[in-house]
Write a structure and sequence with these properties.
Chain A: Its EC number is 7.-.-.-. Chain A: It is a multi-pass membrane protein. Chain A: It holds the Pfam family NQR2_RnfD_RnfE. The complex is a heterodimer of chains A (320) and B (231). Chain A has helices at residues 19-41, 43-66, 77-87, 96-110, 123-134, 136-139, 160-165, 172-177, 189-201, 208-224, 231-239, 243-250, 261-281, 288-305. Chain A is an all-alpha fold. Chain A has a single domain, classed as Ammonium transporter fold, CATH 1.10.3430. In chain A, α10 packs antiparallel against α12 (243-250). A two-stranded antiparallel ribbon of chain B has the order 1-2. The longest helix of chain B has 31 residues, at 126-156. Chain B is globular, with a radius of gyration of 19 Å. The relative contact order of chain B is 0.15. The chains are: A mainly alpha (320), B mainly alpha (231).
């Protein structure tokens, strides 16, 4: 009888999905891209990624200890920030680039806004843009000499997007596999797609943002790219640069995406159009980072405009 | 220190009510021209000269200016001094004139100048108004120069044009850097102030200043007064 009278307040059903679980799954999903990066760019790339992860975790730990806040370095969010930042660096960057970037990402973008769940921008991307604006030379020096696999084009050091913008031809297969110049984690579309499929199957990420992002970007390129529905040009734009990494791993960051389902679709379309705008009409060949950061800032507006109608509200009043 | 004495006015302008770090006035030139220490210092000094002269003039004219048209009258006084100073700069320091650009004529509508005219010069005698203008101007100069020094040092590795180290994070010379540095310096001076005098830490709010106050504790108090919910 006593057991029947057990009283507690809601919620009564809890999900087993925790922050730790989600973060760990994302880390696992990023592994193929990391391994591919190390294969193509050598041990220097691994060193940069490790340095970036270590800096992010250490910054978070030191800040939280000094501020007497609960220690959150084991939930994996700082590791993901570090990993994404590392994958967004060119393999030829000097060692202090990931250190400065990691400190900026965690301290300024994440912790000063209140820690995980409070940051208004994706920390890894904000740090990348910070580094890109601050140390343009080091951040755009794509002249890594290749790692375990010999790179196709190690001389010119041009990323596929820059090459296409300059009117050169690139090989689609090596673009798909990742055998080309670029940042450590963005080159191998294959490895990123493996990780993304893993996350989609586990339902860690939702199809809405990446699919609308890539779809609307493709439409934008067809409409305004100046090449019409040219399959080769479209594929280079989709596979080259940071679009795949950005769409599957950075645009889907839980903290910096709209909660509402319609909002996520709107967010994806905005990202696609912005990326297209920056890539085609901008001075630089790449535009994913700025597009996602800009989209992050629009999220409060998107959420406000896409609040779903509550059950029972908004119906038509019937005449008696 | 006696209230309204010249010395007290200088202390008030530079430390107690520093326009940049405490009053948060004149943010537009503060963020825009402080790309180097020299520009910040030049802007601060230019503003100080105009502020002191216009304070003096407005204080002397305060009994003649009708209350209903005081704003246009202040603007005319300030604009005359700005024009004079602008021509002097153009003639004697053309390099500073070029780098400050549009922000020199914009001193006419600088909120520190109009604010001091309205809040101080129109109510006090010429001598204390003159020193109020000098104090506020020096406070502005200190603010702009310190922001300029930090931005120039981190952004290009120089101080007043002298190379300290090579390279630097270019973003600190660009617009975002202005916000970073301003925020860091405001936080730093709040920290120093609170350490020196724990009573200065924002606790309650002064009713008379509530309208212009951004302290979140005041905001919640205002909400509570309105009968809103306090989170």
């Amino acid at each position: 009888m006593g057991e029947l009278l057990h009283v507690s307040s809601s919620p009564h059903i809890r999900s087993k999905v925790t922050t730790d679980y989600l973060m760990k799954m994302v880390i696992v999903a990023l592994m193929p891209a990391t391994v591919a990066g190390v294969c193509f760019f050598g041990w220097k790339a691994l060193l940069l990624v490790c340095l970036s992860v270590a800096t992010c975790v250490a910054t978070e730990g030191i800040y939280e200890t000094l501020m007497h806040k609960p220690l959150t370095i084991w939930d994996g969010s700082a590791v993901i920030t570090g990993l994404l930042l590392g994958l967004n660096l060119p393999a030829s960057a000097p060692w202090w680039i990931p250190v400065i970037g990691g400190i900026f990402a965690i301290l300024i973008v994440k912790q000063l806004f209140g820690g995980l769940g409070q940051n208004i921008m994706n920390p890894a991307l904000a740090a990348r843009c910070f580094l890109l604006l601050s140390f343009t030379g080091q951040m755009t020096n794509f002249s890594a000499d290749g790692g375990l696999v010999k790179l196709v084009d190690t001389v010119s050091g041009a990323t596929p997007l820059a090459a296409v913008k300059a009117g050169e031809k690139v090989d689609l297969l090596s673009l798909f596999l990742g055998n080309t110049q670029g940042t450590i984690g963005e080159t191998s579309a294959l490895a990123i797609l493996i990780g993304a499929a893993f996350l989609l199957i586990l339902k860690v990420i939702d199809w809405r943002i990446p699919c609308t992002y890539i779809g609307s970007f493709a439409i934008f390129v067809i409409l305004f790219g100046g090449h019409g529905a040219d399959g080769y040009y479209l594929l280079v734009q989709l596979l080259g640069g940071g679009l795949m990494l950005g769409a599957w791993f950075m645009a889907t960051d839980y903290v910096t995406t709209p909660i509402t389902k319609r909002g996520q679709l709107v967010y994806g379309v905005i990202l696609g159009c912005l990326t297209g705008l920056f890539r085609i009409f901008g001075a630089s060949a790449e535009g994913v980072s700025y597009a996602i950061i800009f989209g992050n800032l629009l999220i409060p507006v998107i959420e406000r405009l896409t609040v779903p109608t509550a059950f029972g509200k908004g119906g038509v009043k019937h005449e008696k | 220190m006696k209230a309204n004495s010249p010395l007290e006015r200088l202390y008030n302008g530079i430390i107690k009510e520093n326009p940049t770090f405490v009053l948060m006035l004149g943010m537009c030139p503060t963020l825009a021209v402080t790309t180097s220490a020299k520009n910040g210092f030049g802007m601060g000094m230019t503003t100080m000269v105009i502020l002191a002269l216009s304070n003096l003039m407005i204080s002397m004219l305060r009994k003649m200016i009708p209350d209903s048209v005081r704003m246009p009258a202040y603007i005319v006084v300030v604009a005359s001094f700005v024009t004079i100073v602008q021509f002097l700069l153009q003639g004697f320091i053309p390099s500073l004139y070029d780098s400050l650009g549009i922000y020199i004529p914009l001193i006419v509508v600088n909120c520190i100048i109009l604010g001091r005219a309205e809040a101080y010069a129109s109510k006090n005698g010429p001598v204390s108004s003159l020193f109020d203008g000098i104090g506020m101007g020096l406070g502005f100069t200190v603010g702009l120069t310190s922001i300029g020094i930090v931005r120039e040092l981190i952004g290009s590795g120089k101080i007043f044009g002298m190379t300290v180290f090579n390279g630097g994070a270019t973003i600190f010379i660009l617009a975002p850097g202005a916000f970073f540095v301003l925020a860091m310096l405001v936080a730093l001076q709040n920290r120093v102030k609170m350490k020196k005098d724990p009573a200065a830490a924002p606790k309650a709010c002064d009713e008379s200043l509530c309208a212009g106050c951004t302290n979140h504790m005041c905001a919640s108090k205002k909400n509570a007064e309105k009968g809103g919910t306090q989170s």
